[in-house]
Input
Amino acid sequence: MARSARQSKILEIISTYEVDTQEDLVLKLRELNFDVTQATVSRDIKELGLIKILSNETGKYKYAFADTNSQASNKYIFLLKEAVISLKTIKNFVIVRTLKGMASSICSIIDKFNLEDVMGCVNGDDTVMIIFSNNEESEYALNRLENIINS
Amino acid sequence: MARSARQSKILEIISTYEVDTQEDLVLKLRELNFDVTQATVSRDIKELGLIKILSNETGKYKYAFADTNSQASNKYIFLLKEAVISLKTIKNFVIVRTLKGMASSICSIIDKFNLEDVMGCVNGDDTVMIIFSNNEESEYALNRLENIINS
DNA sequence: AATATATATGCATAATTATACAAACAATCT
DNA sequence: AGATTGTTTGTATAATTATGCATATATATT
Output
């Protein structure tokens, strides 16, 4: 089922581009081979609890994460559970293995958790690397992520 | 000009009721003698940076404050500046005098600032009373509010 | 005061979004 | 397997929201 993949891709897209209509999102998804209609995107947005706000930079509307919506964070956690295969820590890094093609989406979800002392978060196709300021913090974050995923 | 009054009334309305359409808001405003159309409400919502989110309680859409929008908070501050006449503190209270009829709106804006140790916030027609847990906190909050208003 | 300029609003409508309904598809049961 | 039930999606459209343009109202300028 492409549903989960599509939804996390949506999270990634809106954290990368300023998407101001659902039709826009449809086009971007189609470029990425998600054959989808506006109706479905409307439903996804509802489930993900995304909101349309005025962008501070451009003054135009854009879709964004709604930090205030707990149903939404549940959804993010669900997506993490779906896509994360393994978690480990080496030195000041946490390495997250994901389903193929999902790493960038997972990266943007992890960003949303605002983990302490994160220096940065990069990804390939199926791997996310979170860089911390020191080894202790990465241990701690690994724990937190494991707890989230097993909750 | 009724514009500021109307906008702060909108803030009050959405923090009191679950408003799910602009037409709804128009009706509520009309009950309060703000003769207004949906077009104007649409523009107000844009300026106030309000968002439409899924209500966690009812599962329906509703308008809400967007905490993430700095243009919006500027707007709240502007409304405070417009409507607040005086600020003083007595014991563990801060007393805010406002333009007539604006107290309830100002109350809901002040709520948004999440001041420390607020026990509660009540209002009449032109007066807001913020109750703190102790006298020091009310002094401190008075200062913060003064700074906000004179910024 | 008269004129010019800026701001706010309504009307009409374009643009956008949500959803009822039907169809496709998947999962479960007998 | 076939029947049953639940889930996801598209189509078509209803519902909602944003906005161009005209007008009114306020503000500033001479």
Observations:
- Chain B has two domains: 2-66, 84-150.
- Helices of chain B lie at 3-16, 22-31, 38-48, 70-83, 103-112, 135-150.
